[in-house]
Amino acid sequence: MLLAQKKPRPRPEVIKQATRLFSGLADLDFESGYDDHMYFQYLSNNKNDISLLGIYHPEEIYSKYIVQVAGKGFTVVNHPSEVYGLPDTHECIDGNLPLRLVLDIDARQKPDLMNPELPSLDKYKITREDLLSKILIACADIIYFGLKHFINLNAFTLASSSNTDKCSWHIVYPYARFIDYRDLRGFVEKVADRVGKLYSEFIDLGLYKSRFSLRLLGLAKEDRVKRPVISLIKEGYCKLKDYLVQPKLDASEIWPRTFSFEKLEKEEFQPIEDKTALNTGAGLVTAKFGWLEIGSIKKGFVNFQAKSYKACPICEIKHEKDQIYGFLRSNGCFILKCYWQKQYKPNHKELIFGKVIEISAKPKRGIVKRIGDAISNPRPLVELSEMIINVEKLKDAPEVYPNFLSIEKTTTLIRSPPGTWKINYCIKRDYYGIER
User: Fold this and answer.
1) Taking phi first (over 0 means left), then psi (-120 to 50 degrees means alpha), and beta for anything else, what does residue 184 get?
2) Does pLDDT of 181 surpass 60?
3) How far apart are CA 68 and CA 92, in angstroms?
4) SS3 252
5) Total structural domains in the chain?
6) What top-level branch of life does the organism fall under (predicted)?
């Protein structure tokens, strides 16, 4: 009888090595250069105000960094040290360009008394060392077997802003890059499968998009400063760029696409920016849930604010911060969702509030209109030999539309002077386009 093979477990010394990496945090010896910067409220694609990418040409910011500072907006800096230590400052990442492996680990230590169903380390009886070492070892294994790339555990850079109530870590691998965010997201999903459901609850799978941001080293958020681990400082990882996701002038290896499909699917949601329709849809929501009010409407989304502390109608959780938002689908229906549920995933719950706008499909243009446009705007035919035909001989001939799928020889009209509808030239061709 064949015995079922068990998955090989990491050796005890490997687990101990991973656990040691997470002991103790340090501060880097950096002095920020608080220069005056020009801030923009929007990064790109805004009709009502100037955006950062609308001012700068790509070549102007090729070797610089785009950062987002809470309360101020987006700006361009020569080096992250210019904003080192500023509260709530983020590195802006273009997911369509190569980027380093990064995982965002976020876990509350104790159960939430108001929402006991939320995951926590104490609830699952998982230690912080167990959670982080399991994820780190899974990353190294998947990279080795999937990309044939061997990684020492101390080659990852680790930074934390944890306290007694929360376990918050960023894991980065600085020696190679994924081709884009889709492949990185596919890799992280494999890591989540490898570690299992209990552990994957604490990995932010919704982080990876065409544009996303991550907190910079040295910044404070709610009195929690993001710091690197002491053991890695001793290994020489003491520069700010070691902890960035997309450092400039990075010459590291770019891994081939391995964890995602090469075909770029239309997975990014394209909101409909109709403020009147969005207001109408938002009104339906506030009429049903009187404890909600409209917070802001921008870029095709409505963000709602809670006037009282009640359970979310989407996920039935009492959120500490506002998480509910709405938008218009392509069929004109207003949809209500919750950011906490990793937005845009089709398998997550949503509320539909019916049609608030009629979105007409683009009408198809008939052949007569298309032929008229072609005659009015003729395109020059390069190096095409012509056989001149006497127009008088063809004036009584009926209109001919060639059957391009036929193997029979046909006479194809090539060009007429604009507005005259007279035949000047024609070429006899067979099905394969060979002139006869």
Assistant:
1) alpha
2) yes
3) 7
4) coil
5) 3
6) Eukaryota
